[in-house]
Each structure stands twice: as C-alpha cells, then as structure tokens.
Amino acid sequence: MPCVKHLTAQRQFQAVLHGKVLAATQHFVVHGIPASTPGLVIPPAGTPPDAILFEHLLGVVLPKRCARRAVTRNALRRQIYSVGDDFALALGAWACVVRLRREFDRTLFPSATSQALRCTARKELQALFVLAAKAAAKIDLARRKRVAVPVAPLVP
C-alpha cells in the first residue's frame, strides 16, 4: 500500500488551494494541481531535474470554525490521510488538499470522536476521492491530448 507524502510548506498549500476544485461533497472539498507544477516539489540539493519523481502529495485543512475540538480535527485528519493512502494510485501524480468546509451536525454526532462520526466521515471521504480521481484522470487525459508529439517524416 503506497504512503502519500504530506504537504508541509505554506506556499505548497497556497499553490494547491489556488488550483482546481476536483471534487466536493457535503462536508469536504478537494483542491488539486499536478505534482509536476514548477516549484511545488523541492528536491534535495544536487538532484538533477530529470531524476525528480513526482508522486501523490496530500494536505489537510481543518478550520476550527468547522471542528471546534482538537480531538475531532485529529480524528478527521487521520481518516483523510488513511483514505488518501488508499486512493494514492488512483490519483497519480497530483498534489491535493482536502478542506473541511462545513461542520458535522452536533445533534447527530454529540461525541467528538464517535464511531458514527468516523464511519460517516470515511464513507464521505471515499466518495470524495472517487470523484477526485475521476476528475484528475479527465484533466490528465485532456493535458496529454494538448501536447503534440512531433512525427518524423517518412523517408523512402
């Protein structure tokens, strides 16, 4: 099972959040840009540009206004990274940020880390990543079609 790399720098988050919205559900949104975007991946010093391997990068934004308790934010963060690991191959070389955009109803989920909240969040995240993977594949296909491959003329 592949392990996704985490976005760590503020400029990485800003770059991805200014990218396309790949998918949205009731509570979550996925923003994404291709991992090959210049300046997104910082290779170790001395690495030649040809040797840079672009892989799936994942970041999480959980605002306090949507999840007030730290234990809830941490539980959601663990769910997001777990589902992100499951969908790393489907998303390919994309940098994604999953953002919580709406809080879960406290009357339905009174406990900060209830099993019901975890199951509901996981199901929604799986649906979100399916939609994001389809959108990323569609964008990748369109990008490949735009790149013209030069064809050498046939010489008899």
Architecture overview:
There is one protein chain. This protein is α/β, with parallel strands linked by helices. It has one domain (5-40, 54-146): 2-Layer Sandwich (Ribosomal Protein S5, domain 2). It is 39% helix and 17% strand. The chain contains 4 helices and 5 strands. A 5-stranded mixed beta sheet has the order 1-4-5-3-2, sandwiched between helices. A hairpin with a 3-residue loop joins strand 2 and strand 3 (28-34). Helix 2 crosses helix 4. The longest helix is centred in the last third of the chain and has 32 residues, at 115-146. The mean pLDDT is 85.
Radius of gyration using CA atoms only: 18 Å
> Tally the helices: what do you get?
4
Name the shape in a single word.
Answer: globular
Number of domains as seen in the coordinates: 1
Q: Look at the structure and give the mean pLDDT.
A: 85
Gap between N and C termini:
50 Å
Residue stretches low in confidence (pLDDT < 50, at least 5 long) are none
The portion of residues assigned to helices is 25-40%
Strand order of the largest sheet: 1-4-5-3-2
Q: Any guess at the CATH architecture?
A: 2-Layer Sandwich
Following the backbone from N to C, one meets helices and strands in this order, namely EHEEEHHEH
- Tell me the structural class: alpha/beta
Keywords: Endonuclease, Hydrolase, Nuclease, RNA-binding, tRNA processing
Organism: Candidatus Symbiobacter mobilis CR
Protein name: Ribonuclease P protein component
InterPro entries: Ribosomal_Su5_D2-typ_SF, Ribsml_uS5_D2-typ_fold_subgr, RNase_P
